[in-house]
Amino acid sequence: MMDPRDLEACTEAIRHGSLSFHAASKLLPKSVRDPALALYAFCRLADDEVDLKAEKVEAVLRLRDRLDLVYAGTPKDAAADRAFAAVVEQFDMPRALPDALLEGLAWDAEGRTYATLSGVKEYSARVASAVGAMMCVLMGVRDADALARACDLGVAMQLTNIARDVGEDALERRLYLPTDWLEEAGMTPESFFADPRPTKAVRAMVKRLVMEANRLYYRSEAGIGALPASCRPGIYAARFIYAGIGGRLTGMGYDSISARARTSKAQKLGWLAQSVAASATTSVMPQSAVLYAKPLPEVQFLVDAAAKGARASRSDSLFEALAALEAKRQSERATLIGTRARAT
């Protein structure tokens, strides 16, 4: 069982590091909220390790080792690791799900860009939908249709994050906009990094992301009715709060370079109230046929992993990503040694 002190540390990490999820989690039942906080704390730690560290390759490889220890039942002596190990054991968490997150972070460390919207969705599946699938496992939901809609929600949330952070990412020379969109506008990644401005073309790209996210938010709602009734308000809250960021971007004319889209505490409270009302309506309405829509092809592997519940070995694609990072690390070390040798 999870140590209460570890849970408190995870709660504090989420309170300061993920305001949207912290607000939404208040509507989850304690039996789901506590493991969800542990799950999100570990995922947040993983994301920050790669996003905020200069040595991104080393950060991903350290995370690989930490995840190995979690699944071996001997986690690193840190609150988030111990708490996540307890969650893995209690809920028999399929390893393919956190491995997918690790693969997405490996892609970040690699500096990968995505030629098409489908490629962006493949990335979003790993860094966001994998977490949505893990949340379903915490709720005891293994139905493939419900999992597909949870993955829709994850992709929608990540597309919203990407739309919101275009300017901030450009300053860090990170690009998540599909490169074929830039080509259509007569731009290259380098030209955009050199002069990131909210031009009409760039704002049109942000709008396309927001519109695609909205389509997936609507699709995801059909799956909320398939969740335990006590969990529905919390998931509706996540859906409304993140979609609210998209609404703020719309109000800003899709300019996510000049300023960051922010929502207020009052707005979040309003969305929490809306979530409770939507849950009550869902309980008396017939199930939407949208529930049975095919999964996005980019998330099918997550649906399969969560539905089958297998604690399988790592996928070939993850091995390839980690091997590429290992090779990159070795190359960087060899270059550093060569530079030092020439200096002496």
TrEMBL record:
Keyword Ribonucleoprotein among UniProt keywords: no
GO biological process, one term: carotenoid biosynthetic process
Pathway(s) where this gene product acts: Carotenoid biosynthesis; phytoene biosynthesis
Gene3D superfamilies found in the cross-reference section: Farnesyl Diphosphate Synthase
Gene Ontology MF annotations: geranylgeranyl diphosphate synthase activity; squalene synthase [NAD(P)H] activity
Origin: domain of life: Bacteria
Cofactor list: ATP
Keywords: Carotenoid biosynthesis, Plasmid, Transferase
Family from the record: Belongs to the phytoene/squalene synthase family.
UniProt protein name: Phytoene synthase
Protein's organism: Tateyamaria omphalii
